[in-house]
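Changelog-adjacent note: as of this version, every example in the card shows the full chain rather than a window. The one below runs 201 residues end to end.
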Amino acid sequence: MTGRVPGADPRLNLSKTVVLIVQNSQAELDILGQVFIGFGVKAIRKHISLQDAEEVARRVDFDLIVIDGDYEDDGGYEFVKRLRREREGRNRLAPVLLVAGHTPSSQVFKARDCGANFVVAKPITPKVLFDRILWLVQDQREFVECETYVGPDRRHKAFGPPPGMQGRRKDDLSPEVGFPAGPDLAQSEIDALLNPRKAVA
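Full-length structure tokens:
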């Protein structure tokens, strides 16, 4: 990877990464394929047909799926929804980048709600794509499964539940502060906590 992409992290080795690229035009499919080859990826499957892509996703394990959001009838978004909801699907948890020609907030929300990890706007540059892959590598969000949504946690920052709302995650803190469990600290004790001193032998 060193020297392939300006500003790229040389520690990110993609040579063993298996990528599925699904685009609705041969030109975009070829361009993205060449970009991933430039990243050092050797195993790339490319499809224009969503049906063919779904069929191969049932047989092959992928480390990354790049899907076009510009198919008719929201075909790309529906592809991601079906991928996430296949209980025995081998790529159910695979990271998904959705690329789209237009990315107004409505499209971003749609991509988020279908279960995609991130959205990338066209035209895609190697630098932007590589940055998104770095984000995916560092993404620590939990996988959420409920009646209305399956995919990575849609909240990127865990600020807890909104005021007055019950938290849905087991690690959500209560919005209520509650009463003190003991006596207040003296000012000298607070100062010692904020400015710890080394122990004297």
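Structural remarks: The domain at 18-152 is CATH 3.40.50.2300 (Rossmann fold).
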